[in-house]
Amino acid sequence: MAVSIPDDVYFASIAELNQRLKAREFKAHDLARAFSEKLQRVGPGYNALALLLEKQALKFAKDVDDDLKVERYRGPLQGIPFGAKDLLAYAGQPTAWGAQPYATQVFDYTATVLTKLAKPGAVLIGKLAMVELAGGGGYRMAGASISGPGLNPWDKTRWSGGSSSGSGIAVAAGLVTFALGSETSGSILTPSAFCGVTGLRPTYGLVSRHGAMALSWSMDKIGPMCRSAEDCGIVLQAIAGSDGEDPGSAGKGFYFAPQYTRGIKEIRVGLATVDIDEWADASARPAFNQALDVIRGLGVQVTAAKLPDFPYSVLANTIITAEGACAFQKLIESGEVDQLADPKQIAGLKAGLEIPARDYIKAMRIRSMVQQSFHDIFADLDVLITPTRPGPAPLISQPVGTALYDRPQPKDRGLTQLIPAGNLAGLPALSLPCGFADGMPVAISLVGRPFSENTLLSLGREYQKATDWHRRRPPA
Amino acid sequence: MSTRVTRRELGAALAIPAVLSGQAVAPQNTDEELKAARDQFRQNGETLAKFAIPVTTEPAVHFKA
Q1: Is the pLDDT score of A141 beyond 70?
Q2: pTM exceeds cut of 0.90
Q3: More exposed terminus of chain A, fewer Cβ within 10 Å: N or C?
């Protein structure tokens, strides 16, 4: 007989759920069935579901229960239901990349990250919706997806953010305990901020991309979207590591050990007040200022910081579009690209094939300078802090650029370009919910030097001990 | 009554015209979109061209950090 799953389970942390499974309050099979049912019932209402994998999940969860029954424990992810962005291959099942031309695409292999999560017993219950082709050609509207616009669980008239839209929605709405997203330039951080979940963009190369859609070989990263920094650390430990199948693999693993990182009072934090005073929406400034007060209150060393004057967005745009157009050359030249939902995306990919080699190479040379400049910045600092996005999620009816790009930049740009800049340099980032503006979640981001995830997670964990924004739930 | 939704049913449900789902309709003139994209990339190229780079600077092809 199926056990009734209490409502709080849908919003419990990884560690808590795992404890309750070990205490036999319910079985992994019960959990997988309950989450699958909720994902199937609620997910389509937010345009969050790409593919339900209930049958596979229930079979896998039964094996997990067999292990738990004989106390064969495999760590905190054992029995935990999760979802994966639909750019990750799962053998024998459709992987549509959010795009109509790939609606029936099936791979005969499974992405490394999914295989890695299966080992400790995490239960994949479904693939989650995304912006088509992760938005590589640029997109104008939230509806640039085979699944339709990602609707925000906090207000369905607002966008979820993208391109990991379903991942942000599913975690925020309690449809999964955690999700995998991917980021080329903002696709984990943005939906994490807009949906009020905690998202981690790992250092480039730390997590294998084998089996993931390639948009930009030199910028794609896969990372967790969770309920807390603690949960992000647990998931990252499971998915990180060397992989010979990924030419970009850094050959490094990750052991989540925030207790062994340097003391909070030794962490040197850089911030720019202009980010909040001039760049952020007026409605969001109180939340951002309060967040900085909390960070200061933790005892970190705070100093002023700003990014050097590089054309970050131009660099990211040139590199991503040139690489993306090459990745999708066959789609473009066959004319199937016209089946995509967003005309701007179609045009961007087509025109991307025409970007001159000199522009791409020049962008990559300037990118070297960007990397060096961060090396210099992090000689004196450990963490940079800025609003993840300057305001809350835009309305579905608004062009996405209104919220993300098309806003006046302050004369002193502070750290406002940290999303493209950090992605160009392959730096890790952690987005933390920090309050509300206009009734919608807003977030701050911590960015550190390469492979400093434990420092970011340590500071994030302390911040979340002092606040409860990450525990807030959207209206049922 | 079953609450199961097949992939096909889900796809059909999502195929609601954008205007009915409350989403603003993006410009449909593909020629204008393509021209705008090309203009954007040309401007990007001009921005990059103005940027002075030391002759020894190589492309960022290694990301082992």
Answers
A1: yes
A2: yes
A3: N
Q: What is the ipTM of this complex?
A: 0.90
A398 chain-B contacts, CB cut-off 8 A? 24
Which of A218, A342, A365 is closest, CB to CB, to B63? Answer: A218
Say yes or no: A184 contacts chain B, CB-CB below 8 A.
Answer: no
In sequence order, what are the residues at sequence separation of 6 or more whose Cβ sits closer than 8 angstroms to the Cβ of residue A162?
A130, A131, A135, A139, A142, A144, A145, A150, A187, A190, A191, A400
CB contacts of A149 in chain B (<8 Å) are: 21, 23
pLDDT tens sequence across A269-325: 999 999 999 999 999 999 999 999 999 999 999 999 999 999 999 999 999 999 999
CA distances from A177 to A13, A68, A172, A231 (A): 7, 19, 9, 9
What pLDDT digit, counting tens, does each position of A352-388 carry? 999 999 999 999 999 999 999 999 999 999 999 999 9
Predicted confidence at residue B10, as pLDDT, reads 45
d(Cα A69, Cα A250) in Å, to the nearest integer? 38
Q: Which of B1, B31, B50, B57 to mutate to test the interface with A (most CBs of A within 10 A)?
A: B57
Q: How far is B52 from chain A (nearest CA, A)?
A: 9
**Contact predicate A424/A312, CB 8 Å:** yes
Query: A–B: how many Cβ contacts below 8 A?
Result: 146
